[in-house]
Amino acid sequence: MFQIDFPTVFISYLITNIVSLAVIALLFLQIKKRFTGTIFILLCFVFNSIGTFLIFMRGVIPDWISMTVGNTLIFSSGVMMLIGLQRFFGKRDPQLHNYILIFVYFLVHFYFAYFSPILFARVLISSFVLFYIFSQSAWFMLKNTPATMRSMARGVGIIFLIYSLIYVWRIFYLLNGDYSITSYFKSNDSETGFIIANQITFLFLAYNLTLMFNKRLLTEISTQEELFKGLIKNSFDMIVLVDSKGIQHYVSESCEKILGFKADELINVPVIKMLIHPEDQESVLKDFLNIVDNKGSGGVQYRHRHKNGNWVYLEAFGSNQIDNPAINSVIINVRDITERKQTEQIIKENEIRLKELNATKDRFFSIIGHDLKSPFNNVIGFSDLILDQIRKGDYERVGKYATIIQGSSERAMNLLKNLLEWSQAQTGRIKFNPEHADLVDIIDEVLELSNDAAHQKSITIFKDIPQNISLVADKEMINTILRNLITNAIKFTNSGGELTISTEQKEKHLIVAVADNGVGMKKEDIDKLFRIGYCHSKEGTNKEAGTGLGLLLCKEFVEMHKGEIWIESEIGKGSIFKFSIPQN
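User: That's the sequence. What structure does it adopt?
Assistant: Structure tokens below.
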């Protein structure tokens, strides 16, 4: 078991910075045109990540860059965050004092790094200036934001208050403890604890910023919806007088704005039978009869034909005034709710997208925190063992350890490749480049890379395919799909098993199947395989590790081809993974 030392914690902190930067960057792309100040918040995460990376690179790059520039960037990131938050909440306070402080900090830090190298002084000065800027942010978010928006600012304000307390703790320790370390990366347990506290708080900062953005977005959407309802009520409602048989004999002129018809075109028309969507006629008629019988006042929503042939969503409320001699009608108040329906749909789609983003973030953290960490731990651990065996002159185990390192490295590389392709697909940056290709050549190329893994488990691979299969597709994506499906089949097939790759040409699409006689799976597990919210990954028959990411990537790439992917499986009898590629 490895002891968590300061360099390990610092690397973890660096990874946290990068992941948080990616999350905030995705949010920025979604809201950059809606809210001011978000570019400064993004710059905060950029500066902080670059500064942390420069510190990590000490000894590789010049010290004045890794120490002075790196720390100055981290301090500047706090100023960027303060500016971004102020602009986000409609404030533009002067920042000249903070800009001067950045410049003075750079000079003082440079002095204690080169002219009078004292690590204690550098750490103490950095703690004071970061406490100063974080306390400014905490005060602004908790006290100076507009009263109507203070509830959405409170979470981020508390995080900055915690940041301030962390640096108070650090300053207190520096002034009262024994800080005799001369190399930052050989810091004691207290500094390690500080970095861990900083890392956890940084994650909560990114999380609370996400919540703040979402609350602001939902508040604006809610405000716009209420404004829209008010405009409809006062300006665009349509008044209709209907007799007991449902014949309209008066329609207000506002109908032209809503339905495109002029008022006289809707007079003496049995509107339910002629202009209401067939699927809505029954509910509208029932609601109308309830109003006639004084059993209700309406509120039914339905689709009404527009003059241009489209359907318009309307909502109707009625009052029975048939017994009123002056009116002798049912008064129907009709309003156009088409945009409201669309807004509700957009909100639902946004909620689904937010859940997908959160699930993607959780999966990303899980992969980095566990699946990516594990093979690197193996590489580091067995590398140490190899060095120890070499020093002892015992070379018998070196080859064995080297083989383990090679396997761990290959797993890490495959995971990184899938992770990169998956993240590109999630952010829409991967290019779809269909071209004429021979599927047989692609299959042979994938099998050449998979033969070693199959050979180690004595698995026989059969091909039930023609000599040539021409298709129009993205060769790299098809290669990735087949690589993941074949690797998955090998993983869950017992030693001595079989794997078959086959194709079936339909009229308008080509079906490719990868079948194995392995362990198979339950139906409830099949339903979860392609869902981002479930981390469905099981060990292979030889304890092979996995993340479930490969199948998600297959689904993404198949859908980019306008195809489908599905699974047929039975416990103990194996699985068949199939996907279709449309062919013109």
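The first strand starts at residue 238 and ends at 242.
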